[in-house]
Design a protein that fits this description.
By secondary structure, the chain is an alpha+beta fold. The protein has one domain: Glutaredoxin (3-Layer(aba) Sandwich). Helices cover about 60% and strands about 10% of the residues. The protein contains five helices and four strands; from the N terminus they run αβαβαββαα. It has a four-stranded mixed beta sheet, sandwiched between helices. Helix 1 crosses helix 3 and helix 2 runs parallel beside helix 4. The longest helix is centred in the N-terminal third of the chain and has 41 residues. The protein is globular. It starts with a helix and ends in a 10-residue tail after the last helix.
């Protein structure tokens, strides 16, 4: 009986630990989801990026060309970067970077951002005047 009781207590402790772990993971995901939403809502331009990514560098160059300073979240410099990328996947349907948002609206990745720049849509969304520009 004593051995059976110890096994039951051990199983109960394992189940409690698992429940706590699941709670903290969902709480963590929830707070990261809030971070992503607040970041997108709080800044005119947001780029979720990775420092070494050539496509991210290209997207950031577009805003430099427009004399605009985006709020950049470098996912590879954060311990929770992969989890943020998971959340972005749920929001935009893609896991790739960069993911660019203007005034809370998802613009897309690098190619979408460059296309919006070249067509003048990006300047329009940002409410800025631009001169003719060369292709990036």
């Amino acid at each position: 009986m004593a051995a059976s009781a110890r096994i039951n207590v051990t199983m109960m402790m394992v189940m409690i630990a698992l429940a706590i772990s699941l709670y903290w993971d969902s709480a963590s995901a929830s707070s990261l989801g809030e971070f992503v939403a607040k970041t997108i809502d709080s800044h005119k331009i947001v780029i979720f990026s990775k420092t070494y990514c050539p496509y991210c560098k290209k997207a950031k160059a577009v805003f430099k060309e427009l004399n605009q300073v985006p709020y950049v979240v470098e996912l590879d410099e954060r311990d929770d970067g992969s989890k943020i990328q998971d959340i972005l996947t749920n929001i935009v349907g893609k896991r790739t970077v960069p993911q660019v948002f203007i005034n809370g609206k998802h613009i897309g990745g690098s190619d979408d951002t460059v296309d919006a720049y070249e067509s003048g849509l990006l300047a329009k969304l940002l409410g800025i005047e631009t001169e003719d520009h060369d292709d990036l």
